[in-house]
Structures are given as C-alpha cells and as structure tokens.
Design a protein that fits this description.
Oligomer: heterodimer
Number of strands of chain B: 11
Order of helices and strands of chain A: EHEHE
Number of helices of chain B: 5
Structural class of chain A: alpha+beta
Largest sheet of chain A: 3 strands, antiparallel
Number of helices of chain A: 2
Order of helices and strands of chain B: EHEEHEHEEEEHEEEH
Largest sheet of chain B: 9 strands, mixed
CATH superfamily of chain B: Class I glutamine amidotransferase (GATase) domain
Number of domains of chain A: 1
Structural class of chain B: alpha/beta
Radius of gyration of chain A: 16 Å
Helix content of chain A: 25-40%
Strand content of chain B: 25-35%
CATH architecture of chain B: 3-Layer(aba) Sandwich
Shape of chain A: elongated
CATH class of chain B: Alpha Beta
Number of domains of chain B: 1
Distance between the termini of chain B: 19 Å
Strand order of the largest sheet of chain B: 2-1-3-4-11-10-9-6-7
CATH superfamily of chain A: Phosphoribosylformylglycinamidine synthase subunit PurS
Chain lengths: 83, 231
C-alpha cells in the first residue's frame, strides 16, 4: 500500500510561512483568504492490510512525522499501482 | 586536595557546529570535556552533558526531530532520569524539546529570517544548576544565531510552567516570536535546561561579552558538586 501523510500547523497556531505565502499571492493579484503551509510525506508500505497499515502510519505520525504540540495530521491510504 | 575536575560530555551529531566551542569553553572553566559520538549507546562516566548547537541531521523534518532518536540520546534520557545535569544549547534545546525532556517546541522564527546578533536577556531564576552564578533579575548579553528559535507552548502548558517557575531566561526585546519572550527553560526537576542563546560564544570580553561564562561556570560548579557528592 501507499500512504500520504498531510501534516498541518494546528488550528490557531501562528503560521508565518502561510502568512508570507498569502501576502505574496495577494501581491500577484490572486484573491485569497488565509493560506497555511504544511508538509506532505509519501510512504510506500509493505503491508497490504488497510487497517494495519493505518495503525502503523498513525504510530509513525505520533513518534516522528508530526509534533502533536503544534501539528495535526491526516492519513490517506491508497493501493500501490501493480498490487 | 585540589578540587575535582568534573567530566562533561559534549554530544556530537552529524551537522553539529558548536561542539568545539562548547568543548573549549568548558575546558576554560576547568572542566574536563569529552566528546561523545551520537552512535554511542552508553555514556562514559560523566558529571554533566552538553548538547551543543548546530544543525543535526540537517534539521530535516523538524529541528531536533531526527537527532532525538540517536542512540546517544537514549543514554542522555536515562542520565537525566537519574538526575544528571543536561544543558542543551540552541539545536541542543530543540533536540531536548523534541525528546520530551523539556517542555514546548522550537519553531521557525516569526520573521522567517535567520537571527544572528547579541540579544539582551533577563535571568528569572537563579536556584538552578545553570544559573547559580547569576543574580535574580540580572541582565545578560549573549548572542543567538538561529532560524528556528521561536519557542511555543499552548496556554495550559505555559501557565503550568509559570506556576512551576520553569522559565529561566527571557529576552528583554522581541527576538524570534517566542511565546512571552522565553529564551530558556528547565524541566520540572530542574536538572535539564535548554536555551537558544549561545553561552559558549560569550565567554571572553574579546568576543563582545563574557556573560555566557555565568551560565557555563554555574554548570561546571554544579557538576563539581556532583563529583564531591559522589553521585
């Protein structure tokens, strides 16, 4: 399976990178509201069991991929091409 | 009998850059510094540990996030759990926060710009092994050089730290967007401290300030007492 982990600054946490992106987009003439910048981690997993894979990626997020003080995360699982 | 020379470990991670300055400064205050490579699973017989500044593992993912899993960090966590003295400077502070040995987290500076200058600080607490040579409310000038020094704690955590007197150093002017200008904190037990300013770069008037000597010589003194106490 493949997993995509989306890590975002938690709601209410100041995000200076997002603010810089937001003001640059406005300068370019785009009508945008708030912009927030996170991180994407693509993973190839050996497991083919969605429930097991999700549990494992959650442990990865808790231990390393996100810092729960400031970041939230979402996990998307997809079947790897060729499986 | 001459006073014993405390042995202080200086951890070296790939990407560290202030390890030699920390080593030099500790030796200047009559400690016996020893380098400890990050892959070591056991610490040598030490009276204190310093985690120096730098960019361990390239600051990939989040600063300190990878270094906290270095084998030597497990040994440092065990050392701290036994009451051993641990000081984290800059990247060392970031690693200690990621490892959960210190409260809060260091984030990108609010300005998104790297800050490299002398900053004014005030000492909030002197009854720690790291600030015993300072006076309460003393103003210090020590340089910072970091891109990710914006210390953050949420409301509940910040209130708890205030109540426990765990905030040791504050900037007296905005530097990086740190919550309430926090520059250095200790753990609840008081044996682990982290700070963003670099005391090892401020140990001689020739460097512009010798105020960092107060922090490092406090640590050496406390480590010496632990030798005398035989712990």
């Amino acid at each position: 399976m493949k997993a995509t982990v989306l890590v975002r600054p938690k709601h209410g946490i100041l995000d200076p990178q997002g603010q810089a992106v937001e003001s640059s987009l406005r300068q370019l003439g785009f009508a945008v509201g708030e912009a927030r910048v996170g991180r994407v981690v693509d993973l190839e997993l050996e497991s083919n069991d969605p429930a097991g894979a999700r549990a494992e990626v959650e442990r990865m997020c808790e231990q390393l991929l996100a810092n729960p003080l400031i970041e939230s995360y979402e996990i998307e699982l997809t079947e790897a091409v060729g499986d | 009998m001459t006073s014993p020379q405390p042995r202080i470990g200086v951890l070296r991670f790939p990407g560290a850059c202030d390890d030699r300055d920390a080593f030099w400064a500790l030796a200047a205050f009559d400690a016996e510094p020893v380098f400890v490579w990050h892959t070591e699973t056991d610490l040598p017989d030490l009276d204190a540990v310093v985690l120096p500044g730098g960019f361990s593992y390239g600051d990939y993912l989040r600063c300190g996030a990878i270094a906290r899993f270095a084998p030597a960090m497990e040994a440092v966590a065990a050392f701290a759990a036994e009451g051993g003295l641990v000081l984290g400077i800059c990247n060392g502070f970031q690693i200690l926060c990621e490892a959960g040995l210190l409260p809060g987290v260091l984030r990108r500076n609010e300005s998104l710009a790297f800050v490299c200058r002398d900053v004014p600080l005030v000492v909030e607490r002197t009854d720690t092994p790291f600030t015993s040579r300072c006076a309460e409310g003393e103003r210090l000038t020590i340089p910072v050089k970091h891109g990710e020094g914006c210390w953050f704690a949420d409301d509940a955590l910040y209130e708890e730290l205030q109540a426990n007197r765990q905030i040791v150093l504050r900037y007296t002017e905005p530097v990086n967007g740190s919550r309430n200008d926090v520059a250095g904190v200790v753990n609840e037990r008081g044996n682990v401290m982290g700070l963003m300013p670099h005391p090892e770069h401020a140990v001689d008037p020739l460097l512009g300030s010798a105020d960092g000597a107060l922090i490092l010589s406090s640590l050496v003194e406390a480590a010496r007492h632990s030798v005398l106490a035989g712990v």
